[in-house]
Structures are given as C-alpha cells and as structure tokens.
Amino acid sequence: MSKSSSLNKVFADLPVTIFEAMSQAARDNNAINLGQGFPDDPGPEDIRRAAAEASLNGYNQYPSMMGLPELRQAIATHYGHWHGLKLDPMSEVMVTSGGTEALTSAILAVVQPGDEVVCFQPVYDSYLPIIRQAGGIPRLVRLEPPHWRLNEDMLKSVFNSKTKAVLFNNPLNPSAVVYPREDLELLARYCQEFDVIAICDEVWEHVTFDEHKHIPLITIPGMRERTIKVGSAGKIFSLTGWKIGFVCAAPPLLRVAAKVHQFLTFTTAPNLQAAVAYGLGKSDDYFLSMRKDLTRSRDRLTKGLESLGFPVLKSQGTYFLTVDLSPLGLNESDTEFCWRIVRDYKVAAIPVSAFYEQDPVTSVVRFCFAKKDQTLDTALERLSDAVRGRKR
C-alpha cells in the first residue's frame, strides 16, 4: 500500500472546485469571467493608500494574534453604528486572514466528533469539508428557487438533540437573498429550543440592494450569547485579495475560536489591518454609494439578460444574480449550459447545482455583475443567441 492511499480522505477525495474549473475554462477559452465573485477594479484608492502608508511608515512585525487594537475597536464601533450591536473590542472581536479562516476557526471551535451541523443548500464550498474534518455530521436542508426561504417544516426535519451548530449564510451566496426578520426569528427559535450555536457567514452584509436590509442573527433576541458572527473587509471594500476577516462573539465562544486561529494563521498583515480600520470609519456616504454603484451594475446585467430572453431572479444582495433556465425549455442542465457558454460564447458562469451535495437544483446559473460596464456589455453581446440556439 502506498503512503498516498492513507492520506486524509476528507480532502484527498475532494474534486476540483467549480470555481477553479470554470476560471481555468475562462482562461483556456479567452472568456469573460462572470463566474468568480471579484470586481475588476482595484478598490478604493484612499484605503489602498492607507495600506501603503502603513507598510512604509508603520509596524511590519507580528501584530497581536487577535488583531490590531485599532481595528478591533473600529469593528466594534462599526457594528454598533450600523446594527446597534454592542461589542467589547478586546474580548468579543478577533481579526483573521479572511472570512474562510474565520469560519474555519469557528467551526473547529464548536464542532466535535459526532456533532450534527445544519447547513442550507446551496452551501458555500468550504463548510462541509471543515465540518467533516472536525468529525461533525452535516445535516443538509434544500432551499429552492425562486425565493430560497426558510420554513418550519425544513427546520423541524433536521434539528434534534444531536444538533450542535447551524451554519447560516446571510446574504446568501449564490442565490442573492437577504433574509427577512421573519426567517431569522424562526431560525433563532430552533437554535434556542435545541441549544444550538449559530455560526453566521455575513460577509456580504453591506452588499444589499433596494429596500433589503441586513439583520445580523446575533441581534435577534436570545441569540447574543450563542452566535458567532463572521464578516469580511474584502467584501465590504471590494478588496477580495486582502483576506481580512472578522469574528465577533461572546467571550466564551471567542476564546476557543482564538485558540484555533492561533494554530491556523496566527495573525494577519498589519498594514492591511490598519487600512481596514481606516475604511470602517468612513462616512455612511461611502457605503451607500458603494451599494448604489453595485445596484446600477446589477440592473445593467439584469436588463441585458432579460432582453436576451433569460429569466432573471431578482438579486437582493451580494455580487451575484441568478437565472432560472427551467422556463426556457433548454435540453441541458445548468452545468451543461455553463460549459456550453464558456466554450461557444466565451462567457463563464457558475452552475448553482455545484453548491448542493444532495438533491441539487439543476436549472439555476449564477453570474457576477461586479464588473465594469464594458465587461458586462461585451458579455451580453456574446450571449446574444445563447438561448435561441438551444431551444428544444
């Protein structure tokens, strides 16, 4: 038996992610990549300049494992301002190397072998491998288009005495839903009834549109002491490569998450932390303007796709919108559609079925609209007969 046959099965057996596969296909086909969720502009200049200044004239050795004190204070102040959430920056806030590391720290802090963890499909691809590495057992709930909402029956089917945690992504990538208070109160009721810890992936919290407002689950009555809230400066400031994440939780939860973080990345680039602290202190106008610009891009791509015959599901938040192909009568699944358009039309998208492990929805495709107007317009030109050419 070779050594490789005894490698960790949780990771050794994982397929290539759909993001990697479609991005490679975009490169191979010289296609416009509307698959992965990153903007094609460099991000706010003043925040980037703050990072450069901090690198040149600031401290460049190991910062505090928990994060620069000024960033932790900025995070607490920011959430106090936007959500009325009162946090002690020294005992309830931690900085990590991105949102994924924050989620990993939270999962490994909470989940032990045999624990059940409720996850909602479509599910972000990092959740399940980390739950399984911790010895946990995912209990999957199937959300469906067009509304992707929670209901009593689905929660009743998975919550039980073995449930240790729930992973909840709001706003939800990839379906672009911002959950209303009604759904949050329903989930909170089950968390309290079954004594469950909520790990909340809220990295898209500032990227909401129209009248939809993000409500952190930690602010729902009864959830303050049993919620781990995860945020991301990369999503807030469209600086996805910086990988600055936030973990906010009551001290008993944060202490254990910090011990996990200590042995994952330990700490994060101090110049980037200093710049994020500056950014979080910007006026409301910055955040509202960011939403306005993204709303305009969302509407541009939505109207363009609809004019080509694509049934677009309204995007309430995130960098994404989704198209439900089922009314079109196409003789192909979402995955087949995505491979066809990247090959034949030079546009890359993501099939939402890739976010399901069981009983997938196979008719929905995700596009990223956080791109320049010219990028979106060129993509629309290329897709001009993608529907007409494939009707049954």
Task: Describe the protein.
- Pfam families: Aminotran_1_2.
- This is Aminotransferase.
- One of its GO terms (cellular component) is cytoplasm.
- By secondary structure, this protein is α/β, with parallel strands linked by helices.
- It folds into two domains: 1-41 and 283-381, Aspartate Aminotransferase, domain 1, CATH 3.90.1150; 43-282, Type I PLP-dependent aspartate aminotransferase-like (Major domain) (Aspartate Aminotransferase, domain 2, 3-Layer(aba) Sandwich), CATH 3.40.640.
- It is 39% helix and 15% strand.
- It has 14 helices and 13 strands.
- It has helices spanning 9-12, 18-28, 45-57, 69-83, 99-110, 127-133, 152-156, 181-193, 233-236, 251-262, 270-280, 284-307, 334-344, 373-382; strands spanning 32-33, 93-96, 116-121, 137-142, 163-169, 197-201, 227-232, 245-249, 312-313, 320-324, 347-348, 350-351, 364-368.
- It is globular, with a radius of gyration of 21 Å.
